[in-house]
Every structure is written in structure tokens, then in C-alpha cells.
Design brief:
The complex is a heterodimer of chains A (285) and B (295).
Chain A: H1 2-10, E1 22-32, E2 37-48, E3 53-57, H2 64-72, E4 79-84, E5 87-88, E6 96-99, H3 112-122, H4 129-142, H5 158-171, E7 176-180, H6 188-205, E8 209-213, H7 216-222, E9 225-230, E10 235-241, H8 253-284
Parallel strand pairs in A: 3-8, 3-9, 6-7, 7-8
Antiparallel strand pairs in A: 1-2, 1-4, 4-5, 9-10
Helix pairs in contact in A: 3-4, 3-5, 4-5
Chain B: H1 35-40, H2 43-64, H3 75-87, H4 90-122, H5 124-137, H6 146-153, H7 157-181, H8 185-193, H9 198-209, H10 211-236, H11 245-254, H12 258-286
Helix pairs in contact in B: 3-12, 4-5, 4-7, 4-10, 4-11, 5-7, 6-7, 7-10, 8-9, 10-11, 10-12, 11-12
Classes of the chains: A alpha/beta (285), B mainly alpha (295).
Chain lengths: 285, 295
């Protein structure tokens, strides 16, 4: 029953009174490449509560993106289960909206506004075009892209494209917003700005977001709670609080301590792995 | 022991901050092009220049060297024949006959291709069928199907439509199918995320995302079809009643009216260019060019 221990650790006393919005329990995810069957995560469990900015943090190969795709419904777990509001996740749906890292997630044949209305109409949030237009404009203003609503995506910069994607995701008002390293392809300055803006948007409505990143600093700034995953296959290493940390606290000793702590957690694994690899090489040689 | 080399050190200079940056104004960033450059930048102008040069060479060659008109008429006499046949309506009737058959064949081919590709996207077997069938039939010249078509459908429009469908179908199906396969997984996931499945998913995500490939298929299919039709009409245009443009060319050559042959060829080229530049180019400008999928 090692599994029970994982989920129990995710339960804070305060949260126990509220039902979790998203309950991931003992999930093992596998996917096939041409030659291998890869186990991306092994018996991962965590609970996301309303208004959480829940971050999945880990090095590449820890299955954090795969986990997010599982929650989105693109991938079925081979073991364990995932529930949103108590209902098993079976397929992709507009109640869990994905924001990807790639800039090509906007439909190039639709303008900024049309990209959002397309989502609203097809996702079933709006019945009429005019209603969808109003909501789209509201969210375009929120991400400060008014004047660009009739622009096609190929005319926008990377940061602007990601803003549109976030606006599209938020306009759907999903139960949970799923963000897969949304700022990873941006330059450092734009990334800082986008993190700041995301937090401001969160202040408005306190939406729930599940955020994947490999940057410890981004996790600390953006996240309220951080799930640290170890690689090959992804397993839960720790779940930490970071709700009190923002851009403003990057200089604080606490920020630095937490950063070092997580760094050591992730780095300890790598040293162990390197040692194992070296030992294996020696045994073979 | 190596000789001691002094390494260059960075030179420490005083810092400064420019307070007047907002006041700075730039000079002429854009320089106007000369009138000639502007005109030369127009695509049509350059192409017209090439065309006129070719025509001038032709006219000069035939007139100056006094070439036998039965073998190679002057450009102007061929043009004269084209205009007079157009005016008296004979050529127009033939063109109309050809275009009518072409449109029927093209539309039928496209429709079958759409059904085929839909099957190909929904099942693996369908996809396998498309790649196998295109590999088999695409290299097969449609005109080679004509004897078989004549055997099955007789000497009539049905045979022409059959070979046209064969010409269009595989080019469009192959390009569309591979276009669909190249649609990024991100776009697919976005479509699924907003609840799109089945035919709406194909129509709203795959078709626009693969439009550059579909357009290529349609253009290739059009060129195949047009060539095939003229070729087929050369073979048996007359027996199917009115006869089309291909028959007009064949007839002219039989009557040793070489101007007529050239007039017919002009017409073939003219229609080809018109469809390419007016129809396909405009669709491209309004879609994939506007969306930044093609320059």
C-alpha cells in the first residue's frame, strides 16, 4: 500500500474539508514509440483543489507533459484513475482546456478573435455568434491585445500568440486550465512579463490551473503548490507550497532556500543515475 | 616551455546613461523606389515582357527567314485565325464542349477523392488503400485508360468523364491525404479539446490546415485533366457528336490548316493560364497567402 501513502501526503488538513477538483490516483502512463513502450509516469498521485496554481515540476523525461495530456484526456492510464469533479476522465473535452508550448496551437486560418469564438462556439459555451464575440473581446482586452483582434496569427509575435492562446483557454472558463510549458519557447524578458500577467489574470478570477514546467524558478513564481517529479519513469518526489512566493520575492532568502531544496532533490537523482550508469558500464567493461 | 604571452584584458570605460533617447528622431528610414523599379516589381509586367519577347522572336523568325506557312505560320496569321474563329463562334462552341466535359469530370473526381480521403482518415485500412491505389494508378497515364473506357462506355462523353476522373482522383486524393497526415498534432489536439470529432473535425481542422497540399493536388489534377481531355478528343472527338477543342486541332491538321492548329493550341494554353491565374491564384490569395501558410 505504498500508493496510499502518496495520496495521503497530498491531503493537507485544511483541504480535507473541500472535495478536490482533480483527483489523480496511482496513475501509470505509457506510450509507444516505433521501437519501445515507454513508461512515462509510475503510480503518480496528486489532488488539485479549486483556485490552485498547481505546478508539475521535473526534468525532461519525468513524464510531466504526458501526465498533463492524460488529464486532458488524450492518453488513457494503464493503471490508476483520474477524476475531474468525481467523474472519470475519458476523452478530451472543453471542461479542461489545454494551452500548449507550440506557437502553432492557434488556427492560422482564423483571426485572433475568430480563434476564440471558434473555441466558444464549438466547445458549446456560446450559442450565438454575437455572444461569443462579446466574450472574445472581453478576454482579448484582458490579455491587452485589443487592436489586434482582426489580425491573423502569423502576424503576431511569439508572446502575443501565447497571450491569445491563454485568452482562448480562459474564455472557455474551464473547470481547470492545463498549461504545458506555455512560456518555454519565449525569450527570457517576455517570459517574465507573461508570468507576471498570468498571476494578474489569476488575481481577477482565481481560476484553477495545472501548469507544467521544467524551470524551478518559474514553478516557484507561478505556482501555489508544486509537485516535484523524478525522471525515468516519473514518480512523485515531493509536494511543496509556494503560494507565498512571487516575482517580488525572488530576492528573499526563502525563495533561494526553496529553490536550492528542489534543485537538490532533482540533482540528487541525477547523481545517483550517473553513478548507476557508471557502475553498469564498469560491470559490462 | 611556451613563451609567456600577455592576454588582452577588457578595458574598463566610464559608464553613461542616455537621457535624451525619447527625443531622438530618425531620418528617412524608407527610401522611395524609382518609377522603373516600381513597374519592374509588378509580376505581370515582367511576365508580359517575356511573353512579348517570345512572340517577337517567333514573328521575326517566320517573316525574316520566309518559312513555309504550312509548316510554321507567322504569329500574326495564327492570331488572325484565332480571332476570326472566335468571332464566328466555331471555336467557342468547341471550347464550350470541352470545358463542359472537363467540369463534369473534375467535379466527379473531386467528389470521389473527398469520399476516399474521408475513409482514409477514419480508418487505417482506408489510408492503406489510398497510398496503395495512388502508387498504382498515379503513374498510369489517364490516356492509357481510354481504350478500356471506350470498350466499357462507348464513344461518348461517359468515356471522357471516366478518363478525367482517373486523371483528377489520384492526384487530389494523394495530396489531400498526405496533407492531412502532416497536420501538426498540436492542431489536432486543439480540435479534440474543443469537442470536434468525425466529419466536423475533418472539415473544421484538417481541411483548412492542409489547404496548401489540397490546392497543390487540385492544381496538379486540373493540369492532368486538361491535358488528358485534349488528348482524348484528338483520338475520337468527332464521333462523340460536336467534338471539342482537341478535335478542332486534329481537324485543322487534317485539312492542312496549320494556322488552325496553332489557334487551337493558343486556346488550350489560354484556358490553362486563365484557370491557373484567375481561379487558383485568387483562391490562394484569399486563403493560404492571407493566413501566412504560403508566401
Amino acid at each position: 500500500m505504498t500508493q496510499g501513502a502518496h495520496t495521503a501526503a497530498g491531503n493537507t488538513p485544511a483541504a480535507a474539508a473541500v472535495d478536490p477538483l482533480l483527483d489523480v490516483d496511482g496513475v501509470t502512463l505509457q506510450y509507444k514509440t516505433k521501437e519501445h513502450l515507454i513508461t512515462a509516469t509510475y503510480r503518480v498521485g496528486f489532488k488539485v483543489y479549486p483556485a490552485d496554481r498547481f505546478v508539475l515540476l521535473g526534468p525532461s523525461g519525468c513524464g510531466k507533459s504526458t501526465l498533463l495530456k492524460g488529464v486532458a484526456g488524450y492518453l488513457k492510464p494503464v493503471e490508476g484513475n483520474m477524476r475531474l469533479k468525481g467523474v472519470d476522465i475519458k476523452e478530451p473535452g472543453p471542461d479542461r482546456v489545454m494551452v500548449f508550448q507550440e506557437f502553432d496551437q492557434l488556427l492560422p486560418w482564423k483571426t485572433v478573435k475568430e480563434n476564440i469564438t471558434f473555441a466558444l462556439m464549438n466547445g458549446g459555451r456560446c450559442k450565438t455568434q454575437s455572444e461569443a464575440n462579446d466574450i472574445a473581446m472581453e478576454y482579448i482586452k484582458k490579455v491587452k491585445l485589443d487592436r489586434f483582434e482582426d489580425t491573423y496569427p502569423h502576424m503576431l509575435s511569439g508572446g502575443m500568440k501565447q497571450r491569445v492562446s491563454i485568452a482562448r483557454g480562459m474564455a472557455m472558463e474551464p473547470d481547470i486550465l492545463l498549461m504545458d510549458e506555455p512560456f518555454a519557447a519565449l525569450d527570457a524578458l517576455t517570459r517574465l512579463q507573461m508570468q507576471e500577467e498570468l498571476l494578474q489574470l489569476w488575481e481577477d478570477t482565481h481560476f484553477t490551473v495545472l501548469f507544467v514546467t521544467h524551470s524551478i524558478e518559474e514553478a516557484l513564481i507561478v505556482g501555489s503548490r508544486i509537485l516535484v517529479l523524478s525522471p525515468h519513469p516519473g514518480q512523485v518526489k515531493a509536494e511543496l507550497n509556494a503560494h507565498h512566493l512571487t516575482h517580488a520575492s525572488t530576492g528573499d532568502p526563502e525563495f533561494g532556500e526553496l529553490k536550492t531544496k528542489i534543485h537538490n532533490m532533482l540533482f540528487a537523482d541525477r547523481i545517483l543515475e550517473d553513478e548507476l550508469a557508471a557502475a553498469a558500464a564498469e560491470a559490462e567493461g | 616551455m611556451s613563451t609567456q604571452k600577455t592576454l588582452p584584458e577588457p578595458i574598463i570605460r566610464p559608464e553613461f546613461i542616455n537621457e535624451n533617447i525619447a527625443l531622438a528622431h530618425t531620418g528617412d528610414v524608407a527610401v522611395k523606389l524609382s518609377v522603373f523599379e516600381k513597374i519592374w516589381n509588378i509580376n505581370g509586367v515582367r511576365k508580359a515582357f517575356i511573353l512579348l519577347s517570345l512572340v517577337a522572336i517567333w514573328q521575326a523568325y517566320t517573316v525574316l527567314l520566309d518559312v513555309e506557312p504550312l509548316m510554321f505560320p507567322t504569329f500574326l496569321s495564327a492570331l488572325d485565325r484565332l480571332v476570326s474563329d472566335l468571332v464566328d463562334g466555331e471555336l467557342l462552341a468547341k471550347v464550350w464542349f470541352s470545358v463542359k466535359v472537363l467540369v463534369i469530370g473534375y467535379a466527379t473526381g473531386m467528389a470521389i477523392a473527398a469520399i476516399l480521403v474521408l475513409w482514409g482518415t477514419s480508418s487505417r485500412l482506408g489510408g492503406d488503400f489510398i497510398s496503395m491505389a495512388t502508387a498504382m494508378f498515379n503513374p498510369l497515364p489517364s490516356i492509357a485508360m481510354l481504350p478500356l473506357a471506350m470498350l466499357w462506355f462507348g464513344l461518348g462523353t461517359a468515356s471522357l468523364v471516366f478518363v478525367l476522373v482517373h486523371a483528377v482522383l489520384w492526384a487530389v486524393a494523394l495530396n489531400t491525404h498526405s496533407g492531412f497526415k502532416n497536420v501538426s498534432s498540436t492542431l489536432r489536439m486543439i480540435g479534440e479539446n474543443y469537442g470536434l470529432k468525425g466529419v466536423p473535425f475533418v472539415v473544421k481542422i484538417l481541411v483548412p490546415a492542409a489547404l496548401p497540399a489540397i490546392m497543390t493536388g487540385m492544381k496538379v489534377g486540373w493540369a492532368f485533366a486538361w491535358r488528358t481531355l485534349i488528348g482524348a478528343e484528338l483520338v475520337f472527338g468527332a464521333s462523340s457528336g460536336g467534338g471539342g477543342l482537341g478535335w478542332y486541332i486534329f481537324e485543322s491538321s487534317q485539312n492542312i490548316e496549320t494556322e488552325g492548329v496553332f489557334a487551337g493550341l493558343f486556346m488550350v494554353i489560354l484556358i490553362g493560364i486563365t484557370v491557373e491565374n484567375l481561379i487558383f491564384r485568387n483562391i490562394e490569395l484569399k486563403t493560404i497567402n492571407r493566413w501566412g501558410m504560403q508566401r
